Amino acid sequence: MSDLSAVKALVFDVFGTVVDWRTSLITDFMWWAKGRGISADWTALVDGWRGMYVASMDDVRKHPERGYVMLDDLHRRSLEKLVEKFEIRGLTEADLDHLTRGWHRLNPWPDSVAGLTRLKTKFVISPLSNGNVALLTNMAKFAGLPWDLIMSAELFEHYKPDPETYLGAARLLSLKPEEVMMVAAHNGDLAAAQKYGLKTAFVARPTEYGPLQKVDFEATGNWDIVAKDFGGIADRLGC
């Protein structure tokens, strides 16, 4: 078993690990559209939107001369392409803004708030997400997430898995990398965090992508903690 006695802070991937983005967005958009009389395949749009996520961030990495672009803006650009692709008619500028801000209104997984509350009694807890600061702050208010602070890729102007995010989080907390534990439902995120010296905890979210889920059903790396939920992580860390 790993020696976790030095861990002082836990940082969390958010989309898929802390919140159920897919169900939240589909449900939100269906009810909203019903009230507006707008017809669309919202499940296909949400899945397509998430499918453009990595490529949109990679484009920022490939063109540093353009400067950093926060996730809200990347989401909006992707949404406009999808609205055209799916031929969704009748959307105003305000409608597009409302849909983009759907990512600010995501519901937590059933164990998230209780587990975070337990972990907060012993550790500093924060998101370490590709979401921008406003998005993560609004989400915390909406979902009741008890963060001690908000850390975002926006603060470092680098998206995960760039080293600047993981090492930047440790630096802002005045901690050594090994004093910080990354919690995620994605093996790739943990592999990067581990590479840069952070401790790691894996929680499987096998329904994150619904029927489209292809990876991350189980831990595939040598992580310090593998738990079924946040409560299991709190158990391992004595909270």
Helix-strand blueprint:
Layout: E1 9-12, H1 21-36, H2 42-51, H3 53-62, H4 71-85, H5 93-100, H6 112-120, E2 124-129, H7 133-143, E3 151-152, H8 153-156, H9 163-172, E4 180-184, H10 187-195, E5 199-203, E6 225-227, H11 230-236
Parallel strand pairs: 1-2, 1-4, 2-3, 4-5, 5-6
Helix pairs in contact: 1-2, 4-5, 6-11
Question: Notable features of this structure?
Answer:
HAD_sf, 239 residues, Rossmann fold, alpha/beta, 6-stranded parallel β-sheet, single chain, hydrolase, globular, DNA polymerase, domain 1, 2 domains
CATH architectural group of the largest domain: 3-Layer(aba) Sandwich
Average pLDDT over all residues:
95
Shape assignment: globular
CATH class of the largest domain: Alpha Beta
- Overall number of structural domains: 2
Question: Secondary-structure element sequence?
Answer: EHHHHHHEHEHHEHEEH
The profile of the biggest β sheet is: 6 strands, parallel
Q: In percent, how helical is the residue content?
A: 40-55%
Q: Proportion of β residues?
A: 5-15%
The first-to-last residue Cα distance is 18 Å
Outline the low-pLDDT stretches: none
Structural class of the secondary elements?
A: alpha/beta
| CA radius of gyration | 18 Å
In what order do the strands lie side by side in the largest sheet?
3-2-1-4-5-6
How would you name the CATH homologous superfamily of the largest domain?
HAD superfamily/HAD-like
Q: What is the tally of helical segments?
A: 11
CATH topology of the largest domain: Rossmann fold
Extended strand count: 6
InterPro entries: 2-HAD (IPR006328), HAD-like_sf (IPR036412), HAD-SF_hydro_IA (IPR006439), HAD_sf (IPR023214), S-2-haloacid_dehalogenase (IPR051540)
Keywords: Hydrolase
Pfam family, one: Hydrolase
Protein name: 2-haloacid dehalogenase
